Amino acid sequence: MMKSEEVMRILENAIRIGKGVIRYGSVASYIPELAKADKNKLGICLYTIDGNQFETGNTEDRFTIQSISKVMALCLALETFGAEFVFDYVGVEPSGEAFNSLVELDNRSNRPFNPMINSGAITVASLLVNHYSIEDMQKYMQDVCEDPEIAVDEAVFQSEMATCARNKAIAYLLKSKEIIDTDVEDSVTFYTKMCSMSVNARDLAMFGLLLANDGVQLSTGKRLISSQTVRMVQTIMLTCGMYDGSGEFALRTGIPTKSGVGGGLLSVSKKKMGIGIYGPSLDKKGNCIAGCELLGYISEALHLHIFDTREWKVEE
Amino acid sequence: MMKSEEVMRILENAIRIGKGVIRYGSVASYIPELAKADKNKLGICLYTIDGNQFETGNTEDRFTIQSISKVMALCLALETFGAEFVFDYVGVEPSGEAFNSLVELDNRSNRPFNPMINSGAITVASLLVNHYSIEDMQKYMQDVCEDPEIAVDEAVFQSEMATCARNKAIAYLLKSKEIIDTDVEDSVTFYTKMCSMSVNARDLAMFGLLLANDGVQLSTGKRLISSQTVRMVQTIMLTCGMYDGSGEFALRTGIPTKSGVGGGLLSVSKKKMGIGIYGPSLDKKGNCIAGCELLGYISEALHLHIFDTREWKVEE
Amino acid sequence: MMKSEEVMRILENAIRIGKGVIRYGSVASYIPELAKADKNKLGICLYTIDGNQFETGNTEDRFTIQSISKVMALCLALETFGAEFVFDYVGVEPSGEAFNSLVELDNRSNRPFNPMINSGAITVASLLVNHYSIEDMQKYMQDVCEDPEIAVDEAVFQSEMATCARNKAIAYLLKSKEIIDTDVEDSVTFYTKMCSMSVNARDLAMFGLLLANDGVQLSTGKRLISSQTVRMVQTIMLTCGMYDGSGEFALRTGIPTKSGVGGGLLSVSKKKMGIGIYGPSLDKKGNCIAGCELLGYISEALHLHIFDTREWKVEE
Amino acid sequence: MMKSEEVMRILENAIRIGKGVIRYGSVASYIPELAKADKNKLGICLYTIDGNQFETGNTEDRFTIQSISKVMALCLALETFGAEFVFDYVGVEPSGEAFNSLVELDNRSNRPFNPMINSGAITVASLLVNHYSIEDMQKYMQDVCEDPEIAVDEAVFQSEMATCARNKAIAYLLKSKEIIDTDVEDSVTFYTKMCSMSVNARDLAMFGLLLANDGVQLSTGKRLISSQTVRMVQTIMLTCGMYDGSGEFALRTGIPTKSGVGGGLLSVSKKKMGIGIYGPSLDKKGNCIAGCELLGYISEALHLHIFDTREWKVEE
């Protein structure tokens, strides 16, 4: 059994461990607006299933959600269209390729490998754009994160649109293969806007808690997402959430996690907690370098590895 | 709470469901000796962590373990050399490629993607061959499966050696890249012999139980495998165990599983049970077609999906 | 020594041979407007360096020049910017890939393999679009083909623009790699317009004669293209002109040739003749099936293989 | 018209130009025995079709023929089995890949792309090994080079056999695809021995002259190779002879050429001359760096580009 002070002590250690590796990473540079981030920022927030919150560091700093929005978009698509329909357009296999790869799409498969890489997420966005406005998507993100402040960061959005040639290449390739049938420009705009939503570490922890609690909002007892969707989304996060570093990350931490190049990390520990992390210094695969390091420590200290057989308890 | 009769009823349903798809698969044909198998065979055995055994169908039929031996070999290598050493030679990323792919090795990486594909397993075998005889390996498999009858099926072994040009190609490629430094012929022979070990569904269930019980033998309370190795092995089975169908299988069943072209399936449900299945009719990716189908049903019926939040209990 | 009647007899044989294989091909179907072509059309025109013209079949039928325009565009780019500049943006290696491949661009090289595949030709178009209007390009084609009637076929142009998602994917990929720095839409429009120019077999034969005569217009003695450009263009036609069938075609005919999916073939026999062929029934690689077949015969009959050591002479 | 003194002056210039770039290359290092070569050596020999010999530098130094033997092996195979049979096993397309690539074989085609890369040449060797001993092959090379001294360099042969894991990987892959049906070890040994034949620049020039003279031995008037084979071999040399640098080399020199990592270059100028070069300093693609440079100069100075329209004549 663990007391609050013990958890806080572990969090403080985690932050120290994370800070120790910040200098080995660097902020995203391919989008000019993201390059302005302060690489020394680091914050972590835990919302546990028994109602506690633990946090330390820069948990209120806002940053763009980027690829973590792929998880929300997938949830919304699965709830709207059903798994069978969605997975007809996008697979669920890890690709062993980088996030922005085109090769795997053109050469090795007839549909994107999975919804956590750009080609898959743009496909999901093209499904959503038929049914939802970007305001609907924003509202959905506000709801699952319980934060009405979530909104498009216009500066980042404009910066990304000015440098999204590769995503347009992916989208036109999808179009040419008849995987997306909506307007390419509309789909890329929707995708880029959802990536430009501004969140903080608490928002991610809250969304993580929702998934950890099987899709039921802890505060209200209201089911927001079906059990089946929650199970599928966690599985995909575990196998594909960290791009071509997914396998190693799963081995080490055993925590379903999704990263964004804005510096965010969303982690879920089933029936235990949601975790949100912010740290814009990235490793070579585009994942928050401090967060990956400290999650390894936290997984061991709090017994969060999915194949850990030890008891877990946080008590007042 | 579930009673024994309920579990047996579920197993009977499972067998019925499995039998319904046998005709859509076919036995392995690329190894002449394997082509002789009776595709209508099907058996399943469950060993639960509270000491029960449930089984139905052809659970005593012997077949060659094939790729499932990759799991035992990985366990032995991790316990002998440590994770850091082993994962210096072989990665842990799903590759999105078929089991016998060479391309991913030559083009996309400097080491095999993971130990569940042939290139990775041959690399593991080349580490083992320096320290162990094939008799040692046989003894290890007998121990973890609690079956002293496990032995090389000579007919299958000879048949495989006569048709192993592709594995030799892989091994020589590994040699040329200095990933293996032992004799190529020795490594391929060791690998082929360990794949030719003859087991039954009960053996696989018993080994599954060992992993489900965190590496501790249930009957004796003796630890055979370390917790860390057990966690890593289950993670790799989940992300890479079913070749390029791993992601979809994980999504659907959420049960760490490894298949062999001999028709075997090894499944682990943490703190719940080990499952062994035999059914030589294979799907296009080389996995037991009936077993994959019935595991989907069992996962739902017994709440075995790793991200399932429901209680599980089997009672007398 | 060969007399005119002999040449005409050979041409008649060639047409018969070509017609014999028309049924094994089919007209281009991916562009709706091209699908309307009559697959039984076949025509061939020879302009020899000693001033003779031989022709038979549908040599006056107009069709869109398609990929053959890549040769004119390359000539114009080389003459305008010089070889060093142009080949900094696009390579000269055969790729072994199909005409519309993206993989080779993203995975195997930092620039398009050569100017005869779409990625290379779009790159050349992006260089030209900075200096020339499409009217300039049209004028250039009229000049080198000595046909003032050459103009954009608006129906084909519109049809292609409506189905050019893959070319846009290629162009945006080039943009993302900073290989093209002009506006993507402008470059694709220029490229598509130059492909939509309407020509006949005589036009192609006339342009072939210009190349066969080292870039000097036979009728006026005026040099239109430099010797160096002519040599380079013929080399690239020989090694890369028939997509992933270039090697086999070169082996068999030894005649630098470029095909277009509109059904055209442009062939050059140094110091001997230019050849233009029209036949919209295409083989699987997108080359005029009758033309490829009959060029094999003509090459042998008229001693046109580039490594043929026999004398050649057409006399009155 | 050019006099002998003029040719000699051009050759001296060529050597000077070649020597200027030697320092940018390095000797082959992957075969220990080859690493012993003196990188400053350079020699060139021309045998013209009118019976003259011009040479300068190290034209009597012996070195192993390496990949240039692929040309002789192809000639022998074509003469023995016919083109149709041979090209059923190996293609004639440039691959855009390095000489020792496996990927193109496993991923992009069902047979080796062409006989000038290792996979293709090992396939040709496997055809020959059924009909010829290595002594027969040696005799063939002695005949076409008119040098009875050609023999296996045992030190190089042993050195290569000790480091041929990649070639064995290729051969076993070919075996697994049923492209070769002979014993793998026999085929690799035959291939390695033919690569280990010791020649000098004069030998290569003499073989080049034979090809330049349409397969007829100049001294005796005896036809050694058929016209058809000579045409095909030159075409393949032009399109595939310099590995993934073939296209650029063809553009620049227009001379069918084959390189070997022993430092040799074999060039053919139809109806003009054969050229042999020795210079063990190699560029990054494995081609003699000085030879490639000086051939560019010689091609221009002597009008040897295959698409050059200028007259050529060497007179006493």
TrEMBL record, chains A, B, C, D:
Keyword set, alphabetical order: Acetylation, Hydrolase
Residues that bind substrate: S67, N118, E160, N167, Y191, Y243, V261
Keyword Hydrolase: yes
InterPro entries: Beta-lactam/transpept-like, Glutaminase
Catalytic activity: L-glutamine + H2O = L-glutamate + NH4(+)
Gene3D superfamilies registered for this protein in UniProt: DD-peptidase/beta-lactamase superfamily
Secretion signal, residue range per the UniProt entry: none
GO MF entry, a single one: glutaminase activity
A Pfam family of this chain: Glutaminase
Enzyme nomenclature, EC number: 3.5.1.2
Protein origin, superkingdom: Bacteria
PANTHER family linked to this entry: GLUTAMINASE
Family: Belongs to the glutaminase family.
Subunit (UniProt): Homotetramer.
Protein's name in the database: Glutaminase
Source organism (scientific name): Dorea hominis
